[in-house]
Amino acid sequence: MKYPSVVAGILLSLAATGLRALELQEQRTSPYDLAVTGRIAGQPAGVKRYVRWSDLRALSTTALTLDGEFVKGPQQLTVVFLSDLWKALPVGDGADTILATCGDGYCATYTSAFIGEYRPFLVLEINGQGPEHWPPPGLNFNPGPFVITVSTTLVPAAASFLDLEHKKPWAVTGIELANFAERYQGIFSGTWASPPPAADRGRTIWVNSCGSCHAGPPGTAGGTKADRPFPVIAAYAGSAPAFFRKYVRNPRSLVASAKMEAHPHYTDAQLDDLIAFITLGQPTAGN
């Protein structure tokens, strides 16, 4: 495979630091390959490439013993920090964010700032066993082929991050090397170009939480797990704010079959901000 000079420079830099460069495959070779899309240096836009699990395992890994991460009690995890994964990949110009996608349509966003501060990591093994042997005993669902998570044991400050659980996706099948401004242009332009402070705060909640399952306005990255289009969410938030607040905090109290997880920890102020963002520019907006 031939690489342009920028990628050659990355490879030389990796060699100098002792890090292994990951080789991208054109075809999936096993169910445990990690798909890579987005801004890949030396590759045309829109292509999908794959990293073999064995190549990920050959990277410099870290052994972490964490209590209750998957099941009760301590488990030893073999992990690769996203910061090291980033260095080993041929990341193209302008990429500053990782979007992790899951088999059920879930999407988690990791900006370079989040990666640097909270040290998220990709789980390769649980108690010495790779994903072909998952789920581990005591877990009633399979979290494979990959899990990305954040540990408050490793970084205690992460406990104060609102909705940290949204940064712990399981069943991760691929990552996108993305430019944040490009992928979230839809909520940073037009109606949302210069939002009032409350809507600005609500936008942050949307990106880190709601957008994991819900698609936002056109031009906005987001998950496809939920089947509620953004205009429908805006209509509820604007015309029935009391219903919206109760639904966010305890969905199944209103709809027994609701798939959405409860968010009882949201304060009135945070819900005010979220409603301000969602309904910005909507004729039905109001509390």
CATH class of the largest domain: Alpha Beta
What is the global morphology? globular
Number of domains: 2
Work out the helix count.
9
What class, by secondary structure content? alpha+beta
The strand order across the widest sheet is 2-1-9-5-6
Which sequence of SSEs, written as H and E, runs from N to C? HEEHEEHEEHEEEHHHHH
Roughly what fraction of the amino acids lie in strands? 15-25%
Please give the number of β-strands.
9
Mean pLDDT: 90
Instruction: Determine the CATH superfamily of the largest domain.
Output: Oxidoreductase, molybdopterin-binding domain
* Uncertain segments: 1-18
**CATH topology type of the largest domain:** Sulfite Oxidase, Chain A, domain 2
What proportion of the residues is helical, as a percent range?
Answer: 25-40%
Structural description of this entry:
This protein is 27% helix and 17% strand. With 287 residues, it is α+β, with helices and mostly antiparallel strands. It folds into two domains: 176 residues, Oxidoreductase, molybdopterin-binding domain (Sulfite Oxidase, Chain A, domain 2, Alpha-Beta Complex); 95 residues, Sandwich (Immunoglobulin-like), CATH 2.60.40.420. The strands form two sheets. A five-stranded mixed β-sheet has the order 2-1-9-5-6. A four-stranded antiparallel β-sheet has the order 3-4-7-8. The protein is globular.
In summary, what is this structure?
The chain has 287 residues and is an alpha+beta fold. 27% of the residues lie in helices and 17% in strands.
